[in-house]
Design a protein that fits this description.
By secondary structure, the protein is mainly alpha-helical. It contains 12 helices and 11 strands. The strands form 5 sheets. Strands 3-4-5 form a 3-stranded antiparallel β-sheet.
Length: 410
């Protein structure tokens, strides 16, 4: 992997300074704060109006009033996410049969109605499972890999694990094809062969948890491909950023006034950093973790805008243009702040350096300055941040704020 001039491994994780406070709270207070958010605000919202108990699966968005959904057509893009959320909450937190039932009904509905003849997951369907669009949005397939792997842990049916592995191969077949154009979902379509950072990091986010349950060599190698594409290709050391798009040769596009192919997504970049760190933890690869950590730090520094009215992690038009304060709060995706908080907590847990604590405090204060901006109707970024934060804080509390041993030399 390309060197990021990261500090020697011995320098990271060697600190004996315990982190006892974050965001003006003790670690216990911060953990309990997130638990209240998770159960009293997030899960309570989805329990009220987001689950389709009649047919299975999830409505497009829950609402605080608990009213029936106005839009009942369903997209695979968030069905796999919902399967993951309710399987995860059952596996890791409160083992309520209601949550397992929501996951089971979703799984049964999706497997019965929503696969095509190739085994791909169709992208849009009616509430009762009649196809409306073919398998055009590949991210729906990625999230089904994520959801099925977590549901396998909850229900213990080997068929679900096999289906997750099969779906992972189905995604791989398409994204490595020279003809792949990203024609639908998660952004604009591209020229055939265009490589996109968001593809690799979202795919990796499903493969790492899947590999906790399978030793499938092919899946492991697909995960390695995703990491290599992120860290050796999209990461551009000459700019100190990750480019969102590369051409069919994995090279940067030349400037073109009609195309936005040199954009840097602060959100995708910080996700790519912490997801590569998570995969490094799974593999026990300390150097990979350290380099991904350095990429994330540079992303925070280069894609954070400290504005007069609005601050946060934003995109840049190209490597030469600095980040610009958006004209409204809508220009600061709350999901980007969710992922920045995950990254900073991982930094704190494994290095203990002041950098992570300072940035965590900044991102936390920025996000909770407008608490209504958090997308609690989201079935991925917000609950994932709450899940991961609680788990990291639990580990830190058990170590009395000391850093982990992962980066420490023997």
């Amino acid at each position: 992997m390309q060197s990021l001039a990261a500090p020697p491994l011995a320098a990271w994780g060697a600190t004996e300074t315990a982190a006892t406070q974050l965001a003006g709270k003790s670690l216990q207070e911060l953990r309990d704060f997130h638990k209240r958010e998770l159960f009293s605000e997030y899960i309570a919202l989805w329990d009220k109006s987001g689950i389709d108990w009649q047919y299975g699966g999830f409505f497009p968005e829950a609402n605080v009033e608990g009213n029936p959904a106005k839009v009942t057509d369903k997209e695979m893009y968030y069905q796999g996410r919902g399967l993951w959320v309710f399987s995860y909450i059952y596996n890791h937190f409160e083992r309520h049969e209601r949550h397992l039932k929501a996951a089971r009904l979703a799984r049964e509905f999706l497997v019965k109605n929503c696969r095509d003849r190739k085994g791909y997951w169709i992208s849009k369907f009616t509430r009762d499972g009649k196809p409306l669009e073919p398998s055009t949005n590949i991210y729906g397939d990625i999230y089904m890999v994520l959801g099925l792997a977590e549901y396998y842990k909850a229900a213990g049916n080997r068929e679900d694990l096999n289906l997750a592995v099969e779906s992972a191969y189905g995604v791989m077949e398409r994204v490595v094809s020279p003809a792949y154009q990203h024609l639908a979902g998660h952004g604009d379509a591209h020229e055939p062969g265009t490589k996109r950072l968001g593809t690799w990091q979202h795919f990796l986010s499903a493969l790492t948890p899947l590999l906790a349950h399978t030793r499938d060599e092919g899946v492991d190698l697909i995960a390695r491909m995703c990491v290599r594409n992120i860290m050796e290709r999209h990461w551009r050391p000459e700019y100190g950023v990750m480019l969102e798009h590369l051409d069919d040769r994995f090279e940067p596009f030349k400037p073109d006034p009609q195309q936005k192919h040199r954009v840097i997504s602060g959100w995708h970049s910080i996700q790519a950093a912490w997801m590569s760190m998570e995969e490094a933890l799974r593999r026990g690869h300390r150097q990979m973790f350290a380099e991904a950590l350095q990429m994330g730090r540079r992303t925070m520094e280069k894609c954070w805008v400290e504005g007069k009215q609005f601050s946060g992690l934003v995109s840049r038009e190209d490597p030469e243009t600095p980040p610009v304060e958006p004209s409204s709060l809508a220009g600061i995706p709350s999901g980007a702040l969710d992922d920045a908080l995950i990254f900073c907590l991982m930094d704190i847990e494994h290095t203990g350096e002041a950098w992570g604590r300072d940035w965590y405090n900044k991102v936390f204060a920025t996000g909770y300055k407008h608490p209504g901006h958090w997308r609690r109707r989201c079935l991925l970024h917000h609950p994932r941040r709450l899940f991961v934060s609680i788990e990291i804080l639990d580990r830190m509390i058990a170590r009395r704020g000391r850093t982990s041993d992962f980066l420490k030399t023997a």
